[in-house]
Amino acid sequence: MDLTETLTFNDDDRRDVYNYIERHGAVREDELRRALNLDPSALGVHLTILRRDGYVRKVGNKLQVAYQEDFAEKHESGDVAFTIRSADQVDLSELIEVMRMVAEEGSYIEAETVADMIDHEEVILRHNELHSRMFFVATIDDEVVGWVHLDLPEAEKLGHTAVLTVGVHPEHRGHGVGGRLLDRGVEWARDRGFEKLYNSVPATNETAIEFLEAHGWETEAVRRDHYRIDDEYVDEVMMAVGLR
Q1: Does residue 158 surpass a pLDDT of 70?
Q2: What is the pTM of this model?
Q3: Cα(83)–Cα(97) distance, rounded to whole angstroms?
């Protein structure tokens, strides 16, 4: 199931089953049954239909939302080899660690907010009737070293736009990982009909601004004194790139 796919349920219990799995990332069937107080045979029917429709799948002994897995890209830069792939629930702790490191280093408020959100929810990918988000990660020797994230609004009037964050562990910069991640996020959004991406950073994060500008992003607006960082007021630079 693609994250831009419209969810359709013709049964309230079935919607509840999907929403519980989606909200928790990965759950055992017995946990799901107890939480929703469903008869085992009824739950079995709901899961069969949800699997048939491509909404859920079983991985080991747990149920997960059956998100479409985009292909993994392998890259080399000098003696560094890295892979960019769709994020998986098992990446949660490493992803949060990298995001917080980048956020603290460069005062990347948007990334810090997203890191706090996925840490609180304990779920990486989301797709429900109110909110959807996509993550790709960059890995070196199976360790998460960077990410690109897209927050997808469900409101129809904003459906052509998305908010993007991107970052790379400081020890793994200089090999094109960030550029490849950004390209992957932009390509994913363009392929699904999005027309514009946004990213906001503090004016003090000159490295991030220069990085985005080098990849065709432009400053659309500046909000004066929007942040207060270390008791200093800092402007927010609102950047965007068109995908048409």
Answers
A1: no
A2: 0.92
A3: 18
